[in-house]
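Notes from hallway chat w/ T.B., transcribed later so I don't forget. T.B. wanted the structure written out for a chain they're using in a teaching module, and asked if we could keep both sequence and structure tokens in one place. Agreed to drop them here.
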Amino acid sequence: MKRHGLAAIGIAGALLWGSAFQIPAWAADNAASANVKTAAQVAEELGILQGDGNGVSDAYLSKTTTRLQSAILFLRLKGLEHAAMEFRSADNFSDANQVNDANKSILAYLKANPQLGWTGTGNGAFEPSALITSSQYYKVLLETLGYKQDSDFRYEDVLDYAKQVGLSRIADAGSLRNDHIATATVEALALKVKGSGKTLADLLSEQKVIDPAKAESAKRVSLRVADDKSLGSYLTDQSGRTLYVFAKDTQNVSACKDQCAVNWPVYYENNLWVPSELHASDFQTIIREDGKQQLTYRGQPLYYYINDEKPGDVKGHGVNNLWKAAGYSAVQVTNHDKGGTMLTNSKGRTLYTFTKDSLEKSACYGACEANWPIFYSSHAPLSGGFAADDFGTISREDGTKQTTFRGQPLYYFFKDEKAGDMLGQGLNNVWFIVDPSAK
């Protein structure tokens, strides 16, 4: 089992550093909403993800995605879903009888249009109920971007080739869930189609598949989360350049000016998408004393460091004991209303364990998983008081991944609607919140 390092840098500490500094009069009511959306919000806005009865919720995003489901989402992206549903042909994949008549039409359409990239899994089969993998979905997205299998890339090299093109965010995910589909699709929309000089979003807009008014939104640049064995998880820009916070700053106010601002250039993007595990509302735009705009994360202004020469450099971390990489924690310790503490995700949603699980193995599938969506983050979860192997990752029977705490798989409860809800606590005497202080 893969283990995560846990020396992540918490933003909360940074919020306290500047508490003794007085906010200047010019900075009053300085912060404004930033034009930031999660990958899932962008995909929903474009009509690619439509969600379930509760919309595009965290529970929906954590659901597994079959090959058929991902093909339908792909057709929706291309504006071909209706044509596929209306398509009629006796020629179909050998396992088309596993699905209903409407989906048989979709499979027949895919078989009749191999240029779309959905050529099946061999021996004439499609395997509609199998989970889609990162290799399979990136292969289809590469072909959508004009790159052809066996001409531009070999299937066994698809992940390496996808990374060269600019597709890498779900490469290590294995079998995919709906959030992965959203992330990879939004990732592809901002890339240029081979030989055209235009992005995929541009071409889909020209073809009237995407509302032209939304096409610009689809071309957002991305903010990333990186991992370091000693630093843990931290924020970077789209190219992987480290972002920093400054101890002398106060809430949504930068104290870095003059030569400081030369050494620590401000970070600002007007059209940004972030991983769905982040809160888009945690980002705001401020106007600095010099009139420039700057992006903040949880109230902390974000900067580059002039001496970072390439993506992955973190030379600014610890400078003068005032600068730190902008930390991100996928898991937090939260006080609950019964007087104790519990683990939550970065958005404050309660995490649970299941007593029927065994060590590093989940027993929750099917209807159980629908009620108790799994929690997974690829990023080092937490700092402060935890051993290096407290958090880990398991591969479930379906090939998807799940985060564990001290060997116990972690879950959400579908009835928890907001941060702090713990409606699953003690349910059926087998589901319990996680008290991190318990040994």
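Follow-up for T.B.: The CA atoms of residues 187 and 424 lie 35 Å apart. Might be a good example for the class.
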